[in-house]
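Re-running Plant invertase/pectin methylesterase inhibitor superfamily protein to confirm reproducibility after the cluster update. Everything else is unchanged from the original entry.
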Amino acid sequence: MKNHHTFSLLALLSAAALFHPTGAHNNNPSAAANSSCTDFIRISCNATLYPDLCYTSLAGYASTVQADPARLARVAVAVSLSRARRTAKYLSNLSRTIDYGGDHRAAAALHDCSSVFGDAVDQILDSLRQMRHLGSTSAGGETLRFQMSNVQTWMSAALTNEDTCTDGFEDISDGAVKTAVNDRVVKVKEVTSNALALVNSYAAKVTAP
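Result of re-run:
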C-alpha cells in the first residue's frame, strides 16, 4: 500500500492554488461575480446524491472554481481525499488501540475496514493526480477521454471500498466500535459519492462525441 501521508493536500493542489477558500484574498472577484460562482456550484451540485452537503463542502472555494466544471470536479476530489485521509488515520489508530472485549468479529471487521479504506485513499489520490494533468498528453499518448475514464474508474473503486468497510459491520452487534466507524465512514462515502458525480458530469461534457 502506498504511503498515505507522502503528499499533503496543500502540496497536491499548490500548482492550481485550489485551496484558497473564498475570502482568503483581498483581490477576490466582486461580490456579484462571486455570487455567480456560488450559484454555479449550487446548480452543479444538483447532479449529486447529496446536494446540500456538496454545496456546503465546496462553496468556500467558489473564487477558485469560478464557473469551471473541471476545477469544480478537481476540488471535489481533493475534498474527498482530505476527508478520506483523516478517516483512514482514525481507523488505523482505532484498530491499534481499542479494547474489543473479546469480540474477534468486530476486530476483524475493523481491520478489514482500515485496509480497504487505505486502498480508497490511494485511489482518490491517483484521481487527483490525474485531474491535475488533464489535457496534457503523456508519453503514452493518453487522451482526455482516457484520462477521465481513469478518474471515473478510480473514484468508483474508492467508493466501493468505502462501502465495503461499512458492509463488513452489518453482521456485527451494535456497539461503540460499530457506531463510531459507521458514523465517520458514512460521511466520507457521501463526499466521495458527490465527487464522483461531479467527475461524471464533467466527463460527460468533454467526452461526448
